[in-house]
Task: structure prediction
Amino acid sequence: MEWPGLYNYWIVVFLMMAGLYIVIAQGNLVKKMVGLTVFQASVFIMYITMGKVTGGTAPIIIPGDNIVYANPLPHVLILTAIVVGVSTLALGLALIVRINEAYGSIEEDDIEKEEQSAR
Amino acid sequence: MMPHLPALQIVLPLLAAPVCVLLGHGRFAYGFTLVISWLAFAISVLLLNSVLEGGSISYQLGGWAPPWGIELRVDPVNAYVLMIVSAIGAMVMTYARPSVDREIRAEREYLYYTAHLLCLAGLLGVTITGDAFNIFVFFEISSLASYILISLGSNRRALVAAFNYLVFGTIGATFFLIGVGMLYQMTGTLNLADLAERVPPLTGNRTVQAGFIFMAIGLALKAALFPLHAWLPNAYAYAPSVATAFLAATATKVAIYVLIRIYFTVFGADFSFGVMSLGALLQILAVAAMIVASLIAIFQNDIKRMLAYSSVAQVGYILLGIGFATVTGLTGGLLHLFNHALMKAALFMALGCVFYRMGSVRLEAMAGIGSRMPWTTASFVAGGLSLIGVPMTVGFVSKWYLLLATVDSGSWWIVIFVLASSLLAIIYIWRVVEVAYFSPSPEGAPKGEAPLTMLIPTWMLIVANVYFGIDTRVSVGVATRAAEFLLGGGL
Result:
């Protein structure tokens, strides 16, 4: 196996780490959600990668011999996970809207300051 | 009807949720949710009975045979957890009406009940399903609902707490998903029973090992295993009282159940505790949780926050029992799973009664409460005794089994920490007792008990705390069966 061999997995790892880093390092709540979405997207790509069969076709019965089919299950699973990801994103953004109404800011530091002064 | 009980267990609350939205009115929605919660409890009791008598039940959704189709599987372990979750759900709902009225705006009440039903459906689904991917999906159903439950708290910090929980919870669930993907990659199956056959021969494989670690960390986040508990204290402290009582007693328990499933059934005790030497790690983390979280709890002035930190410590006890990977240890862990649900639900419900009258659960607000709300305070003290582990309460029984397991395994040093942590529990419970009984009431403090609909369920749980502390046949019997089942490698 040459070096970049399984380059898809390198992309997955890069996106995963980048996403987690954004979640941890950014103080802006919307940017945190962006990081979370990138992190989840990396997992989607991982599932899709492992479902890929080189030269494989969609799992629909075609007459003829030696037809290679790709496994549809990872794609189906990841469709579900994407729906879950979208709902999490929607709920997170809705919470951010409410936080903005309550604090007048979506920066973690400002919210913390506001709480300290309110105490 | 009877053969479809496993499906009904999740379908009932799941379908009830949209109906609850359509009802759209606080009182109707409440009555409806109450009926559904008790029905779910009845179903889980029937399931537990039939499992204990007739062995595991496998339910094939849509008639597709596993491993191709999705399977619901009920065995002694998860029948036990199902019973805990639905019992707490029913109790908390019985209690909920006045508390929800007080803490949530009238036009949002039906949404609260809907979120409760969805959360219940998700937690039951995680427990009952025999499919690794479905665990993830149901986890997300219950988590999304619990973010909503928490964000409905009356303090604006509830919003921030819910957001932080959302970030942590999503990372945890996604880690679990990565682990499931890696196992699927190596075995080509998602069915837990099938995985249990195909994973053990592959445990030398790097991908399977990585999958194990991803799953373990993801679930540890969900279960608030020290040091991954950062989301828990704020989430519990700022959620509405009813939501805290429900989530504290069920959400982390279900995550721990999945951990047990993964450790013992899918990977097998030999791999988890032998090759990956998880036992030592779990014991160290559990001891750290017991001591550190109890110490932090002592310095909290918000009593809800104090109990939240105590929950982190109690998760430590449960995982300590699991870490021994012996029948006694696992019995102790599972027993504490049940007992902690009982005592934490009772304690948070008592605090809900305090909040109902005082509008605060800070230590200052509780001065002299012993004479103003005698029954509520007495229930708090009784729950506190159970938390400490005084004989004749459930807390004693589970700690007894944990100590037996500790002595059996020869790790004498852990005994000291278990006892020290109990002493710390005495201190933080005593702080409340002292303020409640020995401080004078401030001028013009509100008087009077919480409504009976709140007091009666609280006391029913307190009675259960004492009952299961004296008559241990049911709880210990079932926990032992479950522990033997898990270590027997069966599914």
About this structure: Chain A has a mean pLDDT of 87. The two ends of chain A are 61 Å apart (CA to CA). Helices of chain A lie at 7-25, 29-51, 73-103, 108-118. Chain A touches chain B at residues 20, 23, 29, 32, 36, 39-40, 43, 46-47, 50, 74, 77, 80-81, 84, 87-88, 91-92, 95-96, 98-99, 102-103, 111, 115 (CB under 8 Å).
